[in-house]
Design brief:
The structure holds two protein chains of two kinds. Chain A contains nine helices and no strands. Chain A is mostly helical. Chain A starts with a helix and ends in a 6-residue tail after the last helix. In chain B, 67% of the residues lie in helices and 14% in strands. The two termini of chain B are 24 Å apart. Classes of the chains: A mainly alpha, B alpha+beta.
Chain lengths: 216, 113
Amino acid sequence: MKLSPAQIEQLFVFIEKKYVKYYDLQVELVDHLATSIEEMLANNNKLTFDEALRLVYDNFGIFGFAKIVQQKEEQVIKLGKKLLLKEMRNFFRWPQITFVAFLAVITWQLTIWIDMVILFPAFCLAWISASVWLIVILKKYRGRQKKKLLTIQYAPVFANGSIFFVEWMYFTWNSSHGSIVFCFIVIFGILLKLASYKVYIAIRNKAYTSYPEAFA
Amino acid sequence: MAQNTQLLKGSLINIILKLLGDNDKMYGYEITKKVKELTNGELSLTEGALYPTLHKLEAEGLLSVSVEHIDNRPRKYYSLTKSGKKEAGCRLESFKSFVAQMQLVLNLNSAIK
């Protein structure tokens, strides 16, 4: 006996009431509950849908879905960090390394041509602008989402952290090798922003392919 | 029974990797059902242990995920990635060797008795 679309919807509501708010996790749990219930109803025609649901949910133990949600969140964060690290490493492989070399030359030349009094605030401004731009893009993308997705929610995006970088750059101002450290921080910051943007787009595209119904 | 649960918990990754190695792709409930079938109902995986393990293997890059619409609902399938296949082979080999060693130890113990 197959469950009706209304019963499947009822399962989504049930799961949401049990604090599973992410659609990508709901899908997996709803399918598990639905398949178990279908099998129970096929084996015992006296059983009602609600009774079968209660029995199946009991199998998840005293913590219900809580442990699954918590561990999935941890795994998504771990996966995000792994993807980010991979993207960062990719910048140092051929041919992307030419882009890093180009950035290094340009930044170094700028420190020679332009006084730090002008260069430092200019970079800070550029950095904050890039952060604002990234936040705007993320908000635009999230606005198109109809349902919350765990993979997107915990994607490693360094849209903020501007203050940290600005402070970091400030400390290099008058140090003995200030220009070299300054260049390193600027390049690292740019690569980190690009990598996190690329990871976010990859995660989002994958989510869109898997769960098109979660997007407007 | 409690000891059985502990043993099962320790072998869960091996079971999942083996089943996915034998089958092209599987979904969560299918894995629990298959384990029950293969062991004539002696072993049953708990959902609270199965899904976190699947998610962990996915995060480690050993499993890939695809979603298909089956019976008016989306279904998430798991399959082994290239590195997952390699890891499955290694893990099963060392598990087989461990079982063989345990066998030796247990036989030795019964001989002493």
